[in-house]
Amino acid sequence: MLGTLLDVAPSLGLTLAFEDELWDIAEGGERLGAPDTVQALFTLGGDGTLLRGARWLDGHNVPILGINLGRLGFLTSSSATDFEEGVRRFARGDFVSEARMALESCALDRDGNERCAWRSLNDVVLHKGGFARVVRFTVFVDDEPIGSYSADGLVVSTPTGSTGYSLSAGGPIVVPTVESIVLTPVSPHTLAMRPLVLPPQVEVKVRADDGPEELLVTIDGQVGTTFTGGETLVVRRARSSVQIVRFPGTTFFTRLRRKLGWGGLSERDGDAAI
């Protein structure tokens, strides 16, 4: 695949730059520099690779073309079999750049000082580690307490992330262009605690009240930090969105049917055979 990219790039007017691990094996191209030096980002892998690429861009307005080399590839736009055509379509401008809302989050220590900060395209999750006890925490929206939760954790997701961990925990599917922040408790101890869809401009704070001595904050399922009682997790809409490449003729509902079996297993199985 890297060889094919290097072969077709000159005729398409593309200059390729690879992150260090790929540059070592690509036998061509340049080393990838800072995010502000790129005009487009190609990710080779699956949804996790695209999420990592979105965080690496750190808010820069750069379209991301995801090329799926894995199994699901819900966020990606091209498969391993048609990636060359996808690259050619991208080079001639035959694509739509779809703005996706992202999140900015930070962990505040007991004194209110910021000790960690992140951007995420999918979600921010506060959860226990290997402990069997539930976590007790209070959630605030714009500094108003909305309730105390007893659960295994809490998923704070974007519309894009609504089809990820939030969905597995019983959260709603949100069309990616309907900007909102979704709160989904993980295995809540009380059935009254249901997922909650919030306006995108609010600020969410989560404070752990009781439970295991050490919790975890996970960003897009990939990075994060430990979290202890008395600390506060703050999540808000990011100032800039993530630009995901989509090709004409593909829609969010098409991907739901093909990737997640939306509408029935028979349709999903039929599409998989195409």
β-strand amount: 35-45%
| Major β-sheet strand ordering | 8-7-18-15-10-11
Name of the CATH superfamily of the largest domain = Probable inorganic polyphosphate/atp-NAD kinase, domain 2
Number of helices: 7
Distance from first to last alpha carbon: 22 Å
Overall radius of gyration: 20 Å
Shape: globular
Number of strands: 19
Q: Which structural class do you get from the secondary structure elements?
A: alpha+beta
Q: What is the top-level CATH class of the largest domain?
A: Mainly Beta
Quick description:
This protein is of the alpha+beta class.
Task: Considering the chains and any ligands shown, give keywords for the structure.
7 helices, about 20% helix, alpha+beta, Rossmann fold, globular, 19 strands, 2 domains, disordered C terminus, about 270 residues, Tumour Suppressor Smad4
Q: In words, what does this structure look like?
A:
By secondary structure, the protein is α+β, with helices and mostly antiparallel strands. The chain folds into two domains: 2-100 and 241-272, Rossmann fold (3-Layer(aba) Sandwich); 103-237, Tumour Suppressor Smad4, CATH 2.60.200. Helix content is 22%, strand content 37%. It is built from seven helices and 19 strands. The strands form four sheets. Strands 8-7-18-15-10-11 form a six-stranded antiparallel β-sheet. Strands 14-13-12-9-16-17 form a six-stranded antiparallel β-sheet, with no helix packed on it. Strands 3, 4, 5, 6 and 19 form a five-stranded mixed β-sheet that branches. The two termini are 22 Å apart. Mean pLDDT is 89; it is low at 270-274.
